[in-house]
Write a structure and sequence with these properties.
Largest sheet: 2 strands, antiparallel
Radius of gyration: 21 Å
Shape: flat
Order of helices and strands: EEHHHHHH
Distance between the termini: 56 Å
Strand order of the largest sheet: 1-2
Helix content: 55-70%
Strand content: 5-15%
C-alpha cells in the first residue's frame, strides 16, 4: 500500500498500546452487491444438499452464507447508515487477537499441567501454538485489510465472524488435541504414567 494512503494508529489497550492500520475502505457498487447477493443465495441453497460434501462443512457454509446474506441485505437497504470503517474493524480485530494470545499463554499451560510431561516440552508446545497464532493472526489481518480496501466493506462481517478470531479456537484445540493424542499413544500400556487421570 502506498504510504500516503494509510495511517498507523496507536490505541491504549490493557497495560500498553496496540498499533493498527487505518485506511479508507470501499463501499460496494450496485452491480457488485447484486452479484454477491445472488451467489450467496445459490451457495446457501445448493451446497448443503450436495452429498459429496460433509455435513459439518455444509453447515459451516450455511453459517457463512447467512452472515454474508445479512451483510448484503444491510448494504442493499441501509448502505448510508453503515457505522464502521477500517479503523474500528482494526481495533476490534487487533484487541481480540491480543486477548487470544494472552489466553494461549495462560490457559494452555494450565490445560497441560495435569499431564506427566517434561515442563520444557509443555513450554515448547505452548510457545509453538503461540508462535503459530501470532504469524497466522498477522497474515490474516493483512489479507482482511486487502479485501476491505480493494473489494468492499460488504465482507467486513463475514471476515470477522466466519474467518476471524473464532477460527482460532479450531487450530488451538486441534494442535492441543494432536499433542495429547501423540502423548497418549506414546504412553499406551504404561499404567503408572496414567495415575494422574484418576
Amino acid at each position: 500500500m502506498p504510504p500516503d494512503t494509510l495511517q498507523i494508529v496507536q490505541e491504549p489497550f490493557l497495560f500498553r498500546h496496540v498499533y493498527m492500520i487505518d485506511r479508507i475502505g470501499k463501499f460496494p457498487g450496485a452491480l457488485f452487491l447484486l452479484i454477491t447477493l445472488i451467489v450467496t443465495l445459490l451457495v446457501m441453497v445448493i451446497v448443503p444438499h450436495l452429498k459429496k460434501i460433509p455435513k459439518s462443512f455444509g453447515t459451516w457454509i450455511s453459517f457463512a452464507g447467512a452472515v454474508n446474506l445479512t451483510s448484503c441485505l444491510f448494504f442493499l437497504f441501509f448502505s448510508s447508515r453503515f457505522p464502521y470503517d477500517i479503523r474500528i474493524f482494526s481495533e476490534l480485530y487487533v484487541e481480540t487477537q491480543v486477548i487470544i494470545w494472552f489466553l494461549i499463554a495462560f490457559i494452555l499451560p494450565m490445560a497441560l499441567a495435569p499431564f506427566p510431561i517434561n515442563i520444557f516440552l509443555k513450554a515448547g508446545v505452548t510457545g509453538l501454538i503461540l508462535f503459530y497464532s501470532v504469524i497466522f493472526g498477522c497474515a490474516r489481518y493483512i489479507i482482511f485489510l486487502y479485501i476491505l480496501t480493494k473489494h468492499s466493506y460488504l465482507f467486513m462481517a463475514p471476515l470477522f465472524f466466519v474467518f476471524g478470531p473464532l477460527v482460532d479456537s479450531i487450530y488451538i484445540i486441534g494442535l492441543y488435541s494432536l499433542f495429547i493424542s501423540l502423548f497418549a499413544a506414546k504412553m499406551k500400556g504404561v499404567m503408572t504414567q496414567w495415575r494422574w487421570s484418576y
